[in-house]
Amino acid sequence: MKNNKGVKYNMSEIKSKSVAFYERGSWYHRTKELQDDYKVKYGKKGGFKTKEEAEESYFLCNETFIKDLTSHHLMIDKEVMVSDYLVYWFEYIFRENEISKTYETGVAYVIYNFILPLLKQNNGMADIKLKLASADYFNRILDEVSKMTASAGNKCREVLSLAIRDAERDNYILNNPMNNVKKYYRKKPKVKVLNEKELKKLLKYTKGGNWYLEILLAVFCGLRKGEIMGLKFDDFDVEKQTVNIQRQLVNSPSISTNTEMLKVKVDNYELIEKPPKKDSYRILRVPKVIIKELKKRKELLEECKENNNEFKDYNYISFQEKTGEPHIPNSFNGYLYKICPKIGIQNISVHGLRHLFATILIEQGVPIIKISALLGHANPHTTFEIYCDVMEEREKILAFINDKFTPNIMEA
After folding, report:
1. How many C-beta neighbours within 10 Å does residue 246 have?
2. What DSSP state is assigned to residue 177?
3. Residue 214 and residue 317: Cα distance in Å, rounded?
4. Cβ(339)–Cβ(205) below 8 Å
5. Which of 36, 45, 82, 171 has the most crowded CB, counting CB atoms within 10 A?
6. What whole-number distance in Å separates Cα of residue 156 and Cα of residue 385?
7. What share of the chain is helix, strand, coil (3-state, %, to 5)?
8. What is the three-class DSSP state of 402?
9. pLDDT tens, 338-390?
10. H or E stretch including 32?
11. Which long-range contacts does 111-114 make (Cβ < 8 Å, 24+ apart)?
């Protein structure tokens, strides 16, 4: 059988790709449906008695999908617009290849959050026919997107190069204008994360220790150092398994300035409660293991109050056992830098553990906009800027996390 471009389908090859799968008592296959906004809706269809029936249905559904694309002038019409081609290329060519989920997430963000919104501005004035797109045209597009974030120009050029290369291959255009487009360079952010083996070592070594709860909150909730230090027991809803991020504990320096020497000196630090930025207010679900450790910390608090008359209950979850006063935020990093060499892993900061949380979510295919909200970033572009390199990693980072972000190794 042939598709609409005259390419032969080999049914034996299709079957070898295991397009059918078995669940809930019947055979299923994946489906793709082209919507009015050109986005592809993914789903599944089941109820088949045999694997062969599901595979045959998959083939027929795929034929329908290709016909829909053709009817929208996305496959054979040389008058296709740049925006339409980019959507078609991502949904039908790029995603059909065997790529990592993380890289796919990054490419999707570039197309749908940088390039397409720009092309649609001013009633689509920047959107032209693909066959008319020149190097100057793409230079103007990239010049505009490069103003959004430091890495936008670099990443958008990379994605456009891939798409336009395929356009030339499939005869949509005669020559590839991207060969003459300006290159964009950027300084790569230093995102240091632990690998699975290192994280297991860290969690195993610190389990039962004074900083175990704080480490869990950084790794599996992605909280900042000040946010963790500022948490109080009342911020947790044990029944709903949530935590309300509504403050942070920070060092407030008292500074004296020597105008003659043009130097600034910090006289002393004072711990103060400070509300987070507007977008950092958030309520997060927490794993059962954190609720379990929180209860242990509460028991420790009661024990310290009973055994020490000078102990004062400030209600912070991270407190000094002798006085009840909250830990200084920097002491968390000090603890990590002390134990990492002991257990033979790379030094990691609290912010590095926060990066690890984001990396886990990216690896699981969570949309950037949701990761941005979980991290408390002002907008998704900030998240993309930090983690776009992580999205390119094809090697799996972690696979031991359930729907509530509970590490399985905790249950071992």
Report:
1. 17
2. G
3. 9
4. yes
5. 82
6. 12
7. 50, 15, 35
8. coil
9. 999 999 999 888 888 888 787 777 767 777 777 777 777 766 776 666 656 55
10. strand 26-34
11. 111/86, 111/87, 111/159, 113/368, 113/380, 113/381, 113/384, 114/145, 114/148, 114/152, 114/155, 114/156
Q: Is the pLDDT of residue 77 over 70?
A: no
Residues in the chain: 412
Q: What is the pLDDT of residues 284-303, one digit of tens each?
A: 888 899 999 999 999 999 99
Q: How far apart are CA 396 and CA 148, in angstroms?
A: 30
d(CA 131, CA 81): 8
pLDDT at 3: 34
Please state, for a pLDDT cut of 70, what percent of the chain lies above it: 73
Structure tokens at 407: 């590490």
With beta carbons less than 8 A apart as the criterion, state whether 172 and 80 touch: yes
HEC sequence for 212-280: HHHHHHHHHHCCCHHHHHCCEHHHEECCCCEEEECCEEEEEEEEEEECCCCEEEEEEEEEEEECCCHHH
Alpha-carbon span 14 to 318, nearest angstrom: 57
What is the pLDDT of the chain when averaged over all its residues? Answer: 77
Closest CA to 40 of 69, 63, 7, 19: 69
User: Of 40-49, 282-291, 395-404, which has the strongest mean pLDDT?
Assistant: 282-291
C-alpha dist (Å) from residue 401 to 179, 208, 259:
42, 21, 54
Looking at residue 17, what is its pLDDT? 45
Residue 380 is which amino acid? Answer: P
Q: Which amino acid is it at 328? A: I
